[in-house]
Amino acid sequence: MFQIRTDLALEARELYREGKSGEVPGVEVEKSEIDEEVEVTRVKIIDEQGSSIMGKPKGSYITIECRKLKSADADLKDKVSKILAKEISKLLPKKENMSTLVVGLGNWNVTPDALGPQVVSKILVTRHLFKMYNKTQDPGMTSVSAISPGVMGITGIETGDVIKGIVEKSTPDLVIAIDALASRKMERVSSTIQIATTGISPGSGVGNSRKELSQKTLGVPVIAIGVPTVVDAATMTNDTIKMVIKALQQQADRESGFFKMLSELKDEDKYMLIREVLEPYGANVIVTTKEIDKIITDISQIIANAINIALHPGIDLKDVNRYLN
């Protein structure tokens, strides 16, 4: 059986709950609406049963949803940066003189996959300054290094091996990895940010998972930050059919057997049917939005600002924006 492609824990939970009234066993969920524009959902997988059902490792998954993120103005970008920074800060190790390695995963030559490299280009790196002046601590800043290792198709080397070598040499206390993800819903593409304490598998968003980056493989905690930038054609077609059915039902007899059958068909069943039709023709392609260039630029700035604020307590958004500009 085909599996609906999604990297979001929020959507894995939704898939399980379709047609069910209870919560996923072994999973705790907390929702908070920041305001009319931003909603935060915290999904925590607490045991092996929850991990098996969700298809994800035990840990915390925080999702920030903002429908206007695709066309955010400066004020909204600053607001989301502050919310994201606050969530990242809660996950940082309680350690003095902490050092962090920021990893931008993805292919800088492919725009929907260039989120990680673009974030790294905006990170305020300080490790070399700490080394140069032989400092171990600073009241307003921490030691931060950053790398965008490319993808195996460019380097010929497993990304996980590259990062592991850097971690062994530079010995950070924490790794923050940024990557593009895949969603099962068009409405969440480029409007959702997920933070996970479980690490990440490079390339998972396009169904090409490589060696995972996690505490198990790297020996240090890994915080993964991802944004869905693509959906597959079957997902897009499924969402389109749902909208068409809804529009037709508004103009037709709601009790019609045909429309009733379509509306009661589970999303997973529709997705499987559509994908089975598309697969023989090689038509189940990966799809992104036409404004993806601007979107990646804007969201990379939001994520970089949040990381800079969280890792450097002595600076604020005004300082960060001045540095980046």
UniProtKB/TrEMBL annotation:
It catalyses: Endopeptidase action with P4 Glu or Asp, P1 preferably Glu > Asp, P1' hydrophobic and P2' Ala. Residues 1-7 form a propeptide. Coiled coil: none annotated. One of its GO terms (molecular function) is metalloendopeptidase activity. It is an enzyme of class 3 (hydrolase). It comes from the Bacteria. InterPro entries: Pept_HybD-like_dom_sf (IPR023430), Peptidase_A25 (IPR005080). Keywords: Hydrolase, Protease, Zymogen. The keyword Protease applies. One of its GO terms (biological process) is proteolysis. Autoproteolytically processed. The inactive tetrameric zymogen termed p46 autoprocesses to a smaller form termed p41, which is active only during spore germination. Its EC number is 3.4.24.78. Belongs to the peptidase A25 family. Initiates the rapid degradation of small, acid-soluble proteins during spore germination. Homotetramer. This is Germination protease. The lineage of its organism: Bacteria, Bacillati, Bacillota, Clostridia, Peptostreptococcales.
